[in-house]
Design brief:
The longest helix is centred in the C-terminal third of the chain and has 16 residues, at 222-237. The two termini are 26 Å apart. The protein has 11 helices and 9 strands. The chain is of the alpha/beta class.
Length: 287
């Protein structure tokens, strides 16, 4: 995928800030694993000396907010997100976390502008698959004792919706057989399955923590299911011909019909993996 094409899809999905927050709430309420994935990521880590922190793809500060009480009292968190509308929400999350905050909306290319060993801690939740090519520079800007904490999906993420989308598009002659949807392409770039391999040239120590989860919608939960689908829709359809957009309503009807036929509710795969990366090796002998 071309970088500008990637950027347009990201903007298309995440520009609606309110819809993003509403979707995050749907995920919390319908997750079968009610543990907080952020707390699992932080478990056992001593972050009290972390002063300079970077949150990549920060959005409204989901990961940053969980830093409360965990980092140095004078910590400063720099949030980076291509969508500038997240700035006030991110800065409020910093306030709730008890840290100072700053925000950059120039996109992840700003990483190349940071000096070597600039940060003690770098966070990236559900975003690194958008820019895995930046991992060498992420290693470079971490100090020797710094940490990268990143959370990503497994390859089965939203598999049920992917199958529904392919069936709906294929039955209308709008998708060739074996065509991959955007969500499949993005996740294949950095996932639970290949994350360690991609990170290993740039970090000497990588701890992998599986976070098994799925979203479950009861038989009377069709409304939040449709809201979830609508938010994710560009990742399911935007690589298809323009005409495919005309069948979104048809797909929703197809989803509703299948949902109502199932008396056991509807499950969407959402397994994640946490990567705790230390000993950055960029410029320190990495090959």
């Amino acid at each position: 995928m071309k970088d500008n094409n990637n950027e347009s899809k990201i903007v298309e999905v995440f520009t609606d800030v309110n819809a993003h927050r509403s979707t995050a709430d749907i995920i919390r309420r319908h997750s079968t694993n009610q543990n907080d994935v952020r707390e699992i990521a932080f478990e056992g880590l001593n972050l009290k000396q972390c002063r300079n922190i970077l949150d990549l793809g920060c959005a409204f500060g989901f990961f940053t907010e969980a830093l409360k009480g965990k980092v140095h009292p004078e910590a400063v968190v720099t949030g980076v997100d291509i969508i500038g509308n997240y700035e006030p929400l991110f800065l409020k999350a910093c306030q709730r976390a008890g840290v100072k905050g700053s925000f950059r909306s120039s996109g992840v290319s700003v990483i190349k502008d940071f000096k070597d060993s600039s940060f003690d801690l770098i966070l990236s939740s559900y975003s690194l698959y958008f820019f895995p090519e930046m991992i060498p520079d992420i290693s470079r800007i971490l100090n020797r004792d710094g940490l990268l904490l990143t959370i990503s999906h497994d390859k089965h993420n939203m598999g049920e919706l992917v199958r529904f989308a392919k069936d709906a598009l294929g039955s209308n002659g709008m998708l060739k057989q074996d065509t991959k949807l955007p969500i499949e392409i993005f996740i294949s770039r950095f996932s639970s399955e290949n994350g360690r391999e991609i990170l290993s040239p740039w970090f000497e120590d990588i701890r992998v923590i599986d976070f098994k989860n799925s979203l479950f919608f009861q038989p009377d939960d069709i409304s939040p299911l449709i809201k979830y689908f609508r938010f994710k829709c560009p990742f399911l359809l935007s690589e298809t011909p323009t005409e495919a957009r005309t069948i979104v309503k048809l797909f929703e009807n197809y989803l509703q019909e299948s949902f109502h036929y199932s008396r056991n509710g509807f499950k969407i795969s959402k397994g994640d993996t946490i990567f705790v990366c230390s000993k950055p090796s960029y410029g320190r002998g990495a090959q």
